[in-house]
Amino acid sequence: MISNKALKNFVNLFSFLLILTKFFSYLNQKIEILFFIFWSMPILFLIFFANKLAIKAFQSFSFIFLIYFLSASLRVFGISPYVFDLLEIVLIVILFFICVFAPKIITRNM
């Protein structure tokens, strides 16, 4: 069984890796800085609410990660795939599963 502290650590780690991956895309001039900032804001909110163990936030971010998955899959399965886009889609799927199962983990540990 995963503890609440481990859940927070997983969310923080994978969120940081996802933002770092997108930042590498910015450094390689695949995206603009405004898109990077706009794209990173919801993940920063997730980190904030995940550390508070807000169940509704995890449920909301499951939906947001579905939207992220759809937009990332357009780039990954497009004409010219990029290595960091593939890593991004893997991290999005991991964070999606964490957000789906987090409410159950939180309620069991209370």
Structure description:
- The structure is a single chain.
- This protein has one domain (4-108).
- It is elongated.
- The protein has helices spanning 4-27, 33-51, 55-76, 83-108.
- With 110 residues, it is mainly α.
- The model has no long low-confidence stretch (mean pLDDT 91).
- α1 packs antiparallel against α2 (33-51) and α1 (4-27) packs antiparallel against α4.
- The chain contains four helices and no strands.
- It holds the Pfam family DUF2069.
- It comes from SAR86 cluster bacterium.
- Keywords: Membrane, Transmembrane, Transmembrane helix.
- The chain crosses the membrane at residues 7-27, 33-51, 63-83, 89-106.
Write the layout of secondary structure elements.
Layout: H1 4-27, H2 33-51, H3 55-76, H4 83-108
Question: Could you provide a short overview of the structure?
Answer:
The chain is mostly helical.
Q: Can you tell me the overall shape?
A: elongated
Low-confidence stretches: none
Tally of individual helices: 4
The domain tally reads 1
First-residue to last-residue Cα separation: 13 Å
